[in-house]
Specification:
Chain lengths: 225, 787
């Protein structure tokens, strides 16, 4: 499975770079994350609760970053395993300066196995996309907040070693990863986006709203009766 | 009234349909423990440390075992292969993986707890270190240079390299041909999906040293023997294997799996009964799969459209290990069928069996014969098209003719009987062939949904098997069957058969055989099977053998009963044995109509036996071990009509017509039922089913959300008829029917779809013919056609 794409941050490259090395920030952005902690030099570990279709479980995960090239990017290796299966991935993450912020490119090749592959595979791609999108949206918010909170910090910390820098950084603003319900809604949206051609999506959404409204009206009538 | 040939209702059904049938999971006891097997999520990995401490400390857990414990217990601990081929690469298959896992689902540990939920929860706590490696899953790709090796001692992943027929004469045939038609086929991997998942309860009694195993098995004695020889090593008389009600098998419950040995080991270690019930996910990963062939084949015709040669090259995967009968399936049950119903002077079939990092593949309904029939009948269809002949015409031109029987094929079998044209004629009459072609033309002119018709004039070899033939072909056992018939003192009859039923209706058909011959009521017959402590050694139920082999054994035992009864009656009636005749349930004396005794009179005296002469033994019991002289050769003509939506690729089965010849029929309703089930499975293979692995060896069709089983509403009302050519070598004149539907139908359906799409120039679409594949084929044809 390939997880790849680009994302634009409205923040300077250094800010994005710092955020990407801060376990607290990352732990707070990935849906289902139960916290991420530093386990060594450029190594992090944590638990991730995942629900894909009928398969759910807690994955014990490790992320190892190599070839760090601040603030341009790094290579990463991900290992996750749990009762529902495993995920091993390797990839690259690159940051480039853009007009009014930073462009991030990510390209991860992941192998997924066990029950999560055997039972959940039809939803795997959509789920991975949604997890990535929601994580990036949350990361976006964190980066913007950090950039807003201390715009002068970036210049000061630029030359400091990356690891200690992340530790020394101000606490990120309180932020929770998306809830299961938000995640599920995201998956539904993601699946709909893949299955329903764009011109019809609005119609389908409107139809859904219409149905919900109708149920609501019926419900009120029932109660009133 | 004759009971043979009548559709009496299945005697086993009242229990089964009122919830009274007892399956393995229905047996419980207060001390029973429950096992959950920890399985590899990797297709190929080195096994590192296994930390069982967290699992062992979990609530309710009483034991956690790994391969080390198997060794410590002193068990042989191996899963055996029971069918050897010349130069077969026999590889070790430990019941729990020792240092390498070779497919997703390979067992690495077992957790035993007070209840099954505790066991499953704790199984998730077993911490296993894996060092993953690349995997190979493609039957042909496995032999490619540099492909990851499944077993270090099997170079190029080759399990065997097998040939049947004569390559020289075949090449000569091709050289002389005026038309050569080639085809490349993929016979996809299938997952059996019996309704009842595999299950085992093992109960070891340390005071007697006796192990009782209740399990889902089609052949309890064979299971016991393999446990003795390879996995457990206990003395045979100290193992009792019982098959309670078994909810379908289709071959998947023939084989000796690691699981029953693991569960037995747990009970032996813990001294309590241990139950294991596979989850549906486990059955998908561990039940032996079926098919999975990659084939290139060619047929050569002369100017008169007579077949002058047939050449087949197949890669068939064995999966990660050699399952019990796996090597026989793509060889002696496949290559031997390549002559089909046709008089083919030269055939050569080459099969390479390969190891891949996938679930082992073994016999699944039809076992080799559906694959062979698919090759032959797809070739006939394409060759007819290429020759510009009607597909029925090319078949007729090449049928083995009635006066050619017994017909020796070029691939080892001798067809004992057959008469192929009448079955085809009848099927064509039923389907209204001439009308169909005009409807089809009208559709083609009009556009929209296209009609197609497909034929399959199949033959199969079943009633496994003449032991000498089986032995010469590599079987480690003859495939005879046993029957003991006991006439009880009051004249009722108990039959002990080695043929262990799991849905086929043995209670009914076997009772009909006995009732017919002894002139008693069907309800006066009880059929006992599926218990090694109750029944003499027997071979079990598979290969469409129960009526032809098991039924014949019963027939011959009843003959012996009648013989003994005549001697007893002669003594009681003070007549000469030669003068005693048996008819309509009465022993009478020639020329003395007033002197006769009923069966019950004779049987009572057989046991009271207080004034017998010295040469007359008491009792009225007879045992037969019947070894058939040949396979039986059912045949028939199957015709599918489909409608293909060329806009969406959706295939709808419109009609399915078949005229089969299964010889004499004991119970027409049961025969039809067997055909219906087989047809559903064959049509399922053609249109919907298929196991899919990704490149890393993950089974992507791990649940019924992704593995599409046939459903009743997508099938049609099967239109069936029969011709009757009795089997000449068994006393009942019966042939097998259990697999015929699954053997005949896939090519009929695929031929029909290809026929519907022939205006597009589409020659082949690989099964299953999902809307996506059909749509893509049409789109590709349109693209090429318009450019």
């Amino acid at each position: 499975m390939k997880i790849q794409g680009e994302h634009h941050f409205d923040a300077p490259r250094e800010e994005v770079w710092k955020a990407l090395l801060d376990p607290d920030v990352l732990g707070a952005t990935v849906p289902g994350s139960q916290g991420l902690e530093r386990s060594g030099d450029n190594e992090y570990q944590g638990k991730l609760k995942i629900k894909i279709g009928p398969v759910q479980g807690v994955f014990q995960g490790k992320v190892k970053l190599t070839d760090l090239d601040p603030p341009n990017g790094y290579d990463l290796k991900i290992e996750g395993r749990g009762p529902a299966g495993f995920m091993n991935g390797t990839g690259k993450l690159g940051l480039g300066a853009a007009d009014s912020g930073t462009n991030m490119r990510y390209d991860i090749d992941a192998k997924v196995g066990g029950r999560i592959a055997g039972v959940g595979q039809r939803l795997l791609d959509s789920s991975a996309k949604v997890i990535t999108r929601q994580a990036l949206e949350a990361l976006d918010a964190q980066v913007v907040a950090r950039a807003g909170a201390g715009p002068t910090d970036s210049a000061e910390t630029e030359t400091e070693p990356v690891a200690s820098d992340a530790e020394a950084a101000t606490q990120p603003p309180a932020s929770a990863p998306p809830t299961q319900a938000e995640f599920a809604a995201g998956v539904a949206k993601g699946v709909a986006a893949e299955l329903i051609p764009a011109p019809y999506r609005r119609l389908v959404t409107m139809a859904a709203i219409g149905i919900v409204a109708a149920i609501f009206v019926l419900f009120i009538r029932e109660c009133a009766g | 009234m004759a009971v043979l040939g009548t559709s009496i209702r299945r005697r086993e059904d009242p229990a089964l349909i009122t919830g009274k049938g007892r399956y393995t999971d229905d047996f419980s006891s207060p001390t029973m423990l429950h096992a959950a097997i920890v399985r590899s999520p990797y297709a190929h990995a080195r096994l590192g440390a296994i930390d069982t401490s967290a699992a062992a400390a979990a609530p309710g857990v009483v034991g956690v075992f790994t391969a080390k414990d198997v060794e410590a217990a002193g068990l042989p601990g191996m899963v055996p292969v029971g069918w050897l081929l010349p130069d077969l690469k026999v590889v070790a298959h430990p019941i729990l993986a020792i240092d390498t896992v070779r497919h997703v689902g390979d067992g690495v540990a077992v957790v035993v707890a007070e209840d099954r939920y505790q066991a499953r929860d704790a199984a998730e706590l077993v911490d296993v270190e894996y060092e993953p490696f690349d995997a190979v899953t493609d039957p042909a790709g496995a032999t490619a240079e540099g492909a990851p090796l499944v077993h270090a001692d099997a170079p190029s992943n080759v399990a065997f390299d097998f040939e049947l027929g004569d390559s020289e004469s075949t090449e000569a045939g091709f050289a002389s041909a005026t038309q050569v038609t080639e085809i490349e086929l993929r016979n996809q991997r299938l997952i059996p999906h019996a309704i009842e998942p595999r299950a085992t309860i093992a109960d070891y009694d340390s005071s007697t040293g006796k192990l009782t195993v209740r399990m889902t098995t089609q052949n309890p004695h064979v299971h016991r023997l393999l446990m003795v020889l390879a996995s457990l090593g206990l003395p045979e008389h100290k193992i009792r294997v019982i098959a309670p009600e078994v909810g379908g098998g289709f071959g998947s419950k023939i084989h000796h799996y690691a699981d029953e040995a693991i569960v037995a080991m747990c009970s032996m270690q813990l001294g309590r009964p241990v139950k294991w019930i596979a989850t549906r996910g486990e059955t998908n990963l561990t039940d032996a799969h079926g098919r999975d062939h990659v084939t290139k084949a060619a047929i050569a015709l002369d100017a008169d459209h007579k077949i002058v040669g047939l050449r087949v090259d197949t890669y068939a995967t064995m999966g990660a290990y050699l399952s019990t009968f796996a090597p026989s399936v793509p060889t002696f049950l496949y290559a031997t069928l390549m002559s089909g119903q046709y008089d083919i002077p030269a055939i050569h079939c080459h099969v390479v069996g390969t190891f891949t990092h996938t679930t082992p593949v073994d016999a699944y309904r039809g076992a080799g014969r559906p694959e062979a029939t698919f090759v032959v009948e797809r070739l006939m269809e394409e060759a007819a098209k290429e020759a510009g002949l009607d597909p029925t015409e090319l078949r007729r031109k090449n049928f083995v003719q009635p006066d050619q029987f017994p017909y020796q094929t070029q691939v080892a079998l001798e067809y004992d009987s057959g008469n192929y044209e009448p079955a085809l004629d009848r099927a064509l009459e039923m389907v209204g062939y001439d009308d169909f072609r005009s409807q089809q033309s009208a559709r083609r002119a009009g556009g929209g949904k296209q009609l197609g018709i497909g034929f399959s004039t199949y033959i199969e070899a079943c009633g496994l098997a003449p032991s000498a033939v089986a032995g010469s072909l590599g079987a480690q056992a003859g495939l005879w069957e046993s029957a003991e018939v006991r006439v009880n003192p009051t004249g009722t009859v108990t039959v002990y058969t080695g043929s262990s039923a799991h849905g086929q209706g043995h209670h009914t058909t076997f009772s009909q055989i006995v009732a017919e011959k002894l002139g008693i009521d069907v309800d006066a017959v009880e059929v006992i099977h599926g218990d090694t402590d109750a029944v003499q050694f027997g071979m079990g139920t598979y290969g469409s053998r129960s009526a032809a082999v098991g039924g014949s054994a019963i027939w011959l035992s009843v003959d012996k009963i009648i013989e003994k009864g005549r001697r007893i009656a002669a003594h009681l009636l003070e007549a000469a044995v030669e003068d005693v005749e048996f008819a309509d349930g009465q022993f009478g004396v020639k020329g003395a109509p007033d002197k006769s005794l009923g069966l019950a009179d004779v049987s009572l005296q057989a046991y009271l036996a207080h004034n017998y002469p010295a040469d007359l033994e008491p009792g009225l019991v007879a045992t037969t071990f019947y070894d058939p002289a040949n396979f039986t050769y059912p045949f028939g003509a199957h015709i599918a009509i489909v409608e293909v939506d060329t806009e969406t690729g959706e295939v709808e089965l419109v009609r399915y017509v078949a005229c089969d010849d299964v010889g004499n029929v004991i119970n027409p309703m049961i025969v039809d039922g067997q055909l219906h089930g087989g047809l559903a499975q064959g049509i399922g293979q053609a249109l919907w089913e298929g196991a899919v692995y990704d490149d890393s060896g993950q089974l992507l069709t791990g649940s019924l959300m992704d593995y599409a089983m046939p459903r009743a509403h997508r099938l049609v009302n099967f239109e069936l008829d029969r011709t009757t050519t009795p089997c000449p070598h068994n006393p009942l004149g019966v042939k097998g029917v259990g697999e015929a539907g699954a053997i005949a139908s896939p090519p009929a359906v695929v031929n029909a779809v290809v026929d519907a799409l022939s205006p597009y120039g589409i020659r082949n679409i690989d099964m299953p013919l999902t809307p996506e594949k059909v749509w893509r084929a049409i789109a590709a044809a349109n693209g090429e056609g318009s450019e």
